Amino acid sequence: MTHRTDTVVEDAERARRLSRDRMLDPINLILVPNLVAVVVARQHHVIAAAPLWAICGSLVLAHATSTLFAARFTPGTPRAKPRCFLALTIGLGGAFFYVIGWGAVLAVSFVASAVVVIQTDGSRYKVAAIVAALLTIVAGEVAVTPCV
């Protein structure tokens, strides 16, 4: 009985360490130059002339929510929620892409979320990744298509 308890405690400690490491990962600082890049891109008419708050807000929302979710439900651990992670990261990423006016053109970036899940939790989530990407593109296209 002690061995099982020790294993549970070790797993919980490992999950906490992975969560902390994910939150403190320097890659999270990429948000700052990305915000600068989208502001510059908007000024040079490379992306849509959507309000700056919508562009920056959708980027911050996608980044922060995905990072916090991955820290709380760390991929590759018993706490992982791969389908939710896919839906969240692909959906919010898609929202950002449609806000900046590039939509489905940047859908190839959805592969990054799928790679994270498949590497850590297994290939059985490939269909969930495809469905999440497809639903995001359909929702985005419906949202930007004018009603006749």
Question: How would you portray this structure in words?
Answer:
This protein is mainly α and 148 residues long. The chain has one domain. It is built from six helices and no strands. The chain is globular, with a radius of gyration of 18 Å. The N and C termini lie far apart (67 Å). The mean pLDDT is 88.
Condensed summary:
By secondary structure, the chain is mainly alpha-helical.
Comma- or semicolon-separated keywords:
148 residues; 0% strand; globular
Number of strands: 0
Rounded mean pLDDT is 88
Assess the beta-strand content as a share of residues. under 5%
Helix amount: over 70%
How much is the radius of gyration in Å? 18 Å
> What is the quaternary state of this protein?
single chain
List the helices and strands and how they pair.
Layout: H1 2-24, H2 31-43, H3 52-72, H4 82-99, H5 110-121, H6 126-144
Helix pairs in contact: 1-3, 2-3, 3-4, 4-5, 4-6, 5-6
